[in-house]
Amino acid sequence: MRRNYTGVKKRIGRAVCIAAAAVAVMMCGCADAGNEERTAGVKVSVADSVFFTAREGSAEAEYGEDCTFVLDMRPGYVPVSCDYPDYEIEQTAVGEYRLTLKNIKRPSRVSVVSEETEVPVNTNPERECVIEYDLNDGSGKVQREEYTLSYHIRPNTLGGADIFREGYTLIGWNTERDGSGEHIGLGSRVTVADGATLTLYGEWVQWLPDEDFSYRLLDDGTAALSSYRGDGDVECFAVPGEMAGVPVSTISSSFTTNILCGSIESETLVLPASVTRIDGSAFNNAAFDRIYFFDSLQSVGRGAFSKNISTYHVNAVAAPRLQKSNYNVRFADNLDLIIANKDRPKLILFSGCSLCYGMNSGLLEGSLGGEYAVVNAGLNGEFNALFQMECMLPYINAGDVFVHAPEQMNQYQFLESLRVDGRVFAMVEGNYDLLALADFSYSSTMFEAWEMYCGLRESEDEGSYDDHTGMFNNYGDYVEPRPYDESTEAARDVSYTENCGYYMSLLTEENIAALADIYGKFEERGARVYFSWAPMNEQSNGNADIYAAAKEFQARLEELFEPYGYEIISEVTDYIWKGRYFYDTDYHLNDLGTVLRTEQLAKDLKAVGVGR
User: Fold this and answer.
1) Are 546 and 516 within 8 A, CB to CB?
2) Which of 124, 390, 518, 586 has its CA 20 to 30 A from that of 405?
3) What are phi and psi of 537, to 5 degrees?
4) What is the CATH number assigned to the segment(s) 127-205?
């Protein structure tokens, strides 16, 4: 037996689909007991498989001769063996293999074993760059840092843990000495070309004078600001980091109570890294719209701010803790893919986890002729989708395509809920600057979410910005093995998720108007916007008749989309598959289901002129 593979890499711990060997003796040759004189050929066939199509499934060979079959493999799979005793498998073209059965002497039905090709977690080329940090404080001090990049494609800047200037807070870096260039938060990411050197300059904000504040000493040797005594109309309200040489750790609840100026009219609040606590009611008489604070802040009392803040700038003084352990941190890398491809047409796919579990982006990119850089921006459907889309907007250009395929029972993806929790901050631990791209004026729970995030970090060890989970490839696809086993497929036609289905309650005029509003912003930047479907398990029990519910859902959504002109490019029933194609939920596809869904989406996109 000889097996010849060309250019095939197999995944370790792979999912192997073994069709049960079957040998059928078909009396299609004849022989006598002495000198055999055979007057007819020997019939041989290849058993059907979901992993390939045999161009000719059966053949007739002369006794003792070889018989050849051509197998067209489904993308991502290769033939590795069969149950015939003497055979050869040879790759003849991309996705095409020749199976040769040697020395045919009896009728046989041959089963072929297929396995997945290896899906590399990262194929980004290694890149190197340098950042020179000019403290820009009059000292002339410049710190040079060299970076080697691969999994993460943009470097994280220096944090502010060891940088201090008397009477000032460092709020970030800037590409221009006078602060007129691009602002980059401490620890956040910046674009540097391969082999290039970038100089960044410190951005400093001077503290308000000590005489504007009353304070008291705390038992731990730090100070709490207890009252504000200034005139309240300064452009930037920069809280001092020290009072009489004592670090300021707390803003007391009485801070703006009965202040002489009546209220603080400043638009921007800057907190120093020393502040770890803000008590309830502290800024009740303030109208801040923008805030700069550090990830050393731990506690913010309920009602500390009477007005919702729109823009959040977070600077890093602490080491990251979630990069290795938290699934959601991938968001920063997905956005980097969009940012890095700013000069190339992009196909951005967005939804919740049904997309990162359910797309082979490399296959999609090839199917569309390589015209688009494909970015799988689907990650987690259980938190604020508006925030995620707002983060993408500044990097959308003419010629881009945005495809939204929300889970049909997801209140966040249909913008019914704009709730913010700690996972939003976990998403941006690798690049806090993403927060400032969104408008959070609608949210009164931002600091509750921040405290939840602090709790997530507290249970993890300190890490590095070089860390990563290893769960995703360089498109944003989830790549942990989710095998398909052909031998047990019927037994797996079951539901995995209770009450999963099509929720008509999400299709309100208000929700669709909100979707149309954010879609319109993508279009204003020159992108085409299309709607497709998340996958659904045929066995899901969220609807009495899942096909009828799906059709009703699509009809209602088309009706609601009509005034806005948005196109549903897919038929909803094309995205319903049997349970055998799902992994652990009714919307997480396994590896083969992912290929099926990718092929269907490629077909739908080509039908509306995307790709060639």
Assistant:
1) no
2) 124
3) -80, 125
4) 2.60.40.4270
Assigned token pair, 517: 């509003």
CATH number of 329-419+468-607: 3.40.50.1110
Residue entry with tokens 């859902």 = 553
The CA distances from residue 235 to 58, 289, 298, 539, in Å, are 82, 12, 26, 60
Instruction: Report residues of the chain scoring pLDDT below 70.
Output: 1-40
What are the tokens at 305?
A: 């701010």
Instruction: Give the three-state DSSP class for 339.
Output: helix
Among 548, 509, 517, 516, smallest CA distance to 531 is for 516
Predicted pLDDT at 343: 87
In Å, what is the CA distance from 181 to each residue of 173, 178, 203, 336, 340? 10, 8, 11, 20, 19
* Type of residue at 281: S
What confidence score (pLDDT) does residue 13 get?
A: 34
pTM over 0.70: yes
Helix (H) or strand (E) holding 605: helix 591-607
The pLDDT of residue 83: 95
Q: Which residues pair with 228 in a beta bridge?
A: 213
Q: Are strands 290-294 and 268-270 parallel, antiparallel or unpaired?
A: parallel
C-alpha–C-alpha distance, residues 263 and 268, integer Å: 14
Q: Which residues are CB-neighbours of 465 under 8 A, at least 6 positions away?
A: 152, 156, 187, 320, 323, 430
Query: Cα(119)–Cα(594) distance, rounded to whole angstroms?
Result: 13
Burial of 9 (0-12, 13-18, 19+ CB in 10 A): exposed
pLDDT of residue 123: 85
With 0-12 CB in 10 A as exposed, 13-18 as middle and 19+ as buried, what is 372? buried
Tally helices (H) and strands (E) across the chain. 9, 32
Do 283 and 269 meet the contact criterion of CB atoms below 8 Å apart? yes
Q: In this structure, which amino acid lies at residue 124?
A: N
Q: Backbone phi, then psi, for 161, in 5-degree steps?
A: -65, -35
> What was the pLDDT predicted at 122?
86
Instruction: Decide: 228 and 256 in contact? Cβ < 8 Å.
Output: yes
Q: Which tokens belong to 271?
A: 């907190």
Domain ranges, ordered by start, for the chain? 16-116, 127-205, 210-315, 329-419+468-607
143-173 per-residue burial string, b: 16 or more CB within 10 A, e: under 16: eeeebebebbbbbbbbbbeebebeebbbbbb
Over the range 221-235, which residues count as b (16 or more CB within 10 Å of their CB) and which as e? ebbbbbbbebebeee
Can you read off the two tokens belonging to residue 568?
A: 């549903």
Alpha-carbon gap, residue 27 to 34, rounded angstroms: 18
* Alpha carbon of residue 605 to chain centroid: 21
